[in-house]
Amino acid sequence: MGSETSPSQQNSTNLNAQPGNSETTARYCGMTHGDALVVFGLALLLLGLAGGRFVWHGVWGNPLVHVETLQGEPIPLKIDINSANWIEFLQLDGIGETLARRIVADRDERGPFQSVDDLVRVRGLGEKMIERFRPYLTCEPRPKSSVNDP
Question: Which SUPFAM superfamilies does the UniProt record give (predicted)?
């Protein structure tokens, strides 16, 4: 009987209690402490699973999607030296803009080339360079155009 409290003592105890001070009535976003721990634990578990998935599938170093590519043969490049513009000559490794423009200017001034070997008449093109480019060049001989041609 000594441990029993009277209703007036209970009221005074309840009046002095601040909401949220008691562990049983503490609220976190409208949840009790126990509920908040469960939600936090579930969120932590989901975060761990998501991180594990990225590690398992190799985000660091390997893509998530593996795309197979076929090794094709290079497209054979053939440039007709009598019809190519200077930009087409730039596709050849070792020919810059200046030399490409020189080839076209020579063709315009002196007429079409009769063979790939005729490229030696262009300043800056030697026989070694022509031999290096020979597999990529073709020459369709064309008659020299005259001023009277329409």
Answer: PsbU/PolX domain-like
